[in-house]
Amino acid sequence: MGRLKPRHERFCRAFIETANASVAAKVAGYTPASARNAGYRLLRHPRIAARIAEIQRETSEAHCRNVDVLLGKLETIYRRAVDDRHFAAAARAVELQAKLSGVGPLPTRPPARGRAVALPAEDLKAPALPAKTNGGAG
Q1: What is the pLDDT of residues 120-132, one digit of tens each?
Q2: pTM recorded for the entire structure
């Protein structure tokens, strides 16, 4: 793919940041009066759409590398905390690792004295009651 014009490159980068074609067109230098139409038109241009996809891939790859680095640091913290018998810190490191990995929410710890803990919505549902029978009345 050939290089885009500088104005188009600015549009692509601004679109990645704002996810708004009109705003991205204004940032790229289009007049406010024509920005909406320019943004619409530019998003449909094949080379611009390809460049936006390329920037998104680069961004996601960089994010994955950053997450891997952070997970490695948390693993170091976890191991040191266990070695030093700082189990609360070790548990927190595991919790953060799970969050970064996208594992999902972990069970909450028991409440401290006098503190309430939010329960997941499924724990708040009332238990099903048995169906009432007429019991021969009537």
Answers
A1: 555 445 555 555 5
A2: 0.50
